[in-house]
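Record type: monomer structure entry
Structure origin: computed from sequence
Chain ID: A
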Amino acid sequence: MRIHVTYAGGTIGMVDSPDGLRPGADMASWLNTQFDGIELKGHVSMSQLSPLVDSSETTPIHWQMIIDDIRAHGDEADAFLVLHGTDTMAYSAAALSYALADFTKPIVLTGSQYPLGVVGTDASANVTGALRAAGSSQVSGVTLFFGHMLLAGNRSTKTSSWAFAGFDSPSTLPIARTGAPWRWYHSVEAGEGWANPTPYARHDVAVVDIVPGLSAARLRSMFTPLPEAVIIRAYGVGNIPASDPGFVDVLQELREAEVPLIVASQCHQAEVVLGHYEAGSTLARLGAISAHDMTLEALYAKTIFLLSQGLQGEEFAQWMDRSIAGEVSLPGIA
């Protein structure tokens, strides 16, 4: 078993500085200590991206850097480990799942809540768990290992900034839980895939949470100038204050300008069903697109992916209703 590690940055490799934690640990030397006395010693290679970033600085360009590094070492390794910061790890996991849907080797992302040099850090447990997952014949696609759980990458979300069990998959079971032995629940769901994807690029996507009292004037200002796509995080199954004066007019203007309007839920567990309530029927009439049960991270990354492929209009909407890499549960699909 040969494993290639892509080190992208994040808390796991940070050290103290006068301005707070920053990347700077000798990750290669630390990783070598993790392999002493085990069968992987001598079978792990590593790339360090430049620059290393706090994951709060991540953009779609960084997603592409990770993807390019994995593809560059595609013939040299049997599995891949990505060391990443926790703040946007779920976004990156989803992004990798779409762009590498045609990749046949397992990819596992992990990181830590504490730097590797801190007493009591979770870095070693997460890295060794991720390595165990990457080397398992039961793992495929893009997964995320954290806090003794292996999750489907595009179904995961960060739930805590401090707990060692910092991630969850609210709409699906975990792939596995650690133990003696590990408990396996299911495999990563396959989607339709995407052959020869165009690289990620930055796109202007607005993400807006609906809150009580949000005015039409404020909503309109959020969409000036017009973005390339809009994600509305609505209440419940896709409800908005449709009777508030001017509110629907703003959304109508978006649709007339052919800006995709995608509706997600603010709930951790929800299936967006536009028109189930009168308060959401307006969105259905406007031709808004349901996010179904996608996490925000999976939805945002998918929106950027589709825009990066040049999709617009009806073709964009159709792919939001299709699974590229198992990121969504659709009617009739378990």
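Annotation 1: The chain has a mean pLDDT of 92.
Annotation 2: The CA atoms of residues 261 and 288 lie 5 Å apart.
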